[in-house]
Design brief:
This protein has about 525 residues and is mainly α. Helices cover about 55% and strands about 5% of the residues. It is built from 20 helices and 9 strands. The strands form 4 sheets. A 3-stranded antiparallel β-sheet has the order 4-6-7. It has a two-stranded parallel ribbon with strand order 1-2. Helix 14 runs antiparallel to helix 15. The N terminus is likely disordered. It catalyses: L-histidine = trans-urocanate + NH4(+). One of its GO terms (molecular function) is histidine ammonia-lyase activity. Pfam families: Lyase_aromatic. InterPro entries: Aromatic_Lyase (IPR001106), Fumarase/histidase_N (IPR024083), HutH (IPR005921), L-Aspartase-like (IPR008948), Phe/His_NH3-lyase_AS (IPR022313).
């Protein structure tokens, strides 16, 4: 997804959004528009809610309290206050502010559910949500408050509160009162009616939004890991023989085949490897597991991402609310707000992210040990003993990998009862998503250090690198110096991290040798 997405307009209708559309709005500021078909469906469904509001029989969410208070019938004159009280009381988040791209993803996905016509809100509610998104008004949402069931209640309530002109928002990063921000944008604050407060807060939108963002980042990192592996093979004078296509076909996992093909493509034509081939056959015979088994690990990582994308696709097609207005007009309590399916894959991704970082760190460590780096200086230092080279860069990797292993502990295996035991099993999907964001950041940093270290090793070898690996080194050397005496290393690591996160190094490779798989 490029920054050109800022000029894109995403249509929100009865059908499902795509992961790319979510990222376009969340990360790159694409505008949204509601389809006329969706507005018509929303209006038709609202008529059914209006009918039930007049019915003397209590209907959950329309004429009753919520959660453990659902047995209380609320008279008509108190129902607007009921919805307002619901939003105000549930906007109970605490802790640091959540990132703006996460909040925008959450808002888009709630809007998408509203536009299915299954929530029973008036069209003005959906339109106001779209207007706030398009105005760049970002409600302040705080880290803690969601148990992932009944959906992401507190985060969504903070967003709903902003639509009412209450609470805090940010506009262009500046903290503002929500009412003042709406007024400046020419948006009339909402006055909620039956069912609408509940419809605004009852969904898996936060955890799903973070899943979509993570899938996008991890797909990019899968290719980046293959580039790092190819550079390490070259820098360690390893062999490409094990990545041959026919060997991958013997174990037909699609991710494995893609990873192996990418490594071959990036390292193809290396003079460094060609010159070292006979020596390798005579004295080395095999590379270590961290090099030789890279496609198996990176391939499993890839296949897990695609499983997660399948789950995300199902959830993007969902109308998550409780109660829901069924297509036949029934208003029915249900359990679709439970975040378990999303929480499971968020945790799964944290596991494979930790493992891909772990194998990357092991490859990096091989460069630093003269007993294993095949003729390079200890720690790739210019003058070992006087210089320490990349010794502490590996320490940084090791610290991150250790943290990623802790983050791989599943949130979804935990559950804390809430709402006076009415909501007695929860998904903790929001927590799973929050820690996965930290895991993605950690993997980006670990791969950046491997690339930085491998580039230094390749520079210390005789001969020309492959076209693919050479493209990385050329791009890197535009802002990061090559081998030499010790210097302030942190800025070089941070610059490499920036290039990895932005996809700049991947773009350099694909610009030179074509698209990777």
């Amino acid at each position: 997804m490029s920054h050109a997405a800022t000029s894109q307009t995403v249509s929100v209708g009865i059908g499902a959004l795509t992961i790319d559309e979510v990222v376009a709005v969340a990360r790159y500021g694409a505008k949204v528009e509601i389809t006329s078909e969706a507005l018509a469906e929303v209006e038709a469904t609202r008529e059914r809610v209006e009918e039930l509001a007049q019915d003397p029989t209590p209907v959950y969410g329309i004429s009753t309290g919520f959660g453990a208070l659902a047995r209380r019938h609320i008279p008509e004159e108190m129902r607007a206050q009921l919805q307002l009280s619901l939003v105000r009381s549930h906007a109970a988040g605490t802790g640091p502010e959540v990132e703006e791209e996460v909040i925008r993803a959450l808002m888009l996905l709630r809007l998408s559910t509203l536009c299915t016509g299954r929530t029973g809100v008036r069209p003005v509610v959906a339109q106001t949500y779209a207007d706030v998104l398009n105005a760049g008004i970002v409600p302040v949402v705080r880290e803690y408050g969601s148990l992932g069931c009944s959906g992401d209640l507190a985060p969504l309530a903070h967003c709903a509160l902003a639509l009412l002109g209450e609470g805090e928002v940010r506009v262009n990063g500046e903290l503002q009162d929500a009412g003042e921000a709406l007024k400046a944008a020419g948006i009339e604050p909402l006055v909620l009616r039956e069912k609408e407060g509940l419809a605004l807060i009852n969904g898996t939108d936060g955890m799903l939004g973070m899943l979509c963002l993570a899938i996008t980042d991890l797909r990019q990192l899968a290719k980046t890991a293959d580039i790092a592996t190819a550079m390490t093979v070259e820098g360690l004078l390893g062999t490409l023989v094990v990545f041959a296509e026919d060997l991958q076909e013997l174990r037909p996992h699609p991710g494995q085949a893609a990873a192996a093909a990418n490594i071959l493509k990036v390292a193809e034509g290396s003079e460094i490897l060609a010159a070292a081939l006979e020596e390798f056959k005579k004295n080395q015979v095999q590379d270590a597991y961290s090099v030789r088994c890279a496609p198996q690990v990176a391939g499993g990582f890839r296949d897990t991402i695609e499983h997660a994308a399948t789950v995300a696709g199902h959830e993007l097609a969902a109308a998550v609310d409780n109660p829901v207005v069924a297509k036949d007009g029934r208003v029915v309590s249900n359990g679709n707000f439970h975040g378990a399916p999303v929480a499971y894959v968020l945790d799964f991704l944290a596991i494979v992210t930790a493992d891909l970082a772990s194998i990357s760190e092991r490859r990096t460590d091989r460069f630093l040990d003269p007993a294993r780096n095949r003729g390079l200086n200890a720690f790739l230092a210019d003058d070992p003993g006087v210089d320490s080279g990349h010794m502490i860069a590996q320490y940084a990797q090791a610290g991150i990998v250790s943290e990623l292993k802790r983050l791989a502990n599943p949130s979804s295996a935990d559950s804390i009862p809430s709402s006076a035991m009415q909501e007695d099993h929860v998904s903790m999907g929001w927590s799973a998503a929050r820690k996965l964001r930290k895991s993605v950041d950690g993997l980006q940093r670990v791969l950046a250090i491997e690339i930085l270290t491998a580039a230094r090793a390749i520079d210390m070898r005789d001969g020309e690198p492959a076209k693919g690996t050479g493209a990385v080194i050329e791009k890197l050397r535009g802002t990061v110096q090559g081998a030499g005496t010790d210097r302030f290393l942190s800025p070089e690591i941070e610059e490499t991290v920036r290039l990895v996160k932005a996809g700049t190094l991947l773009d350099a490779v694909e610009g030179g040798i074509g698209k990777l798989r």
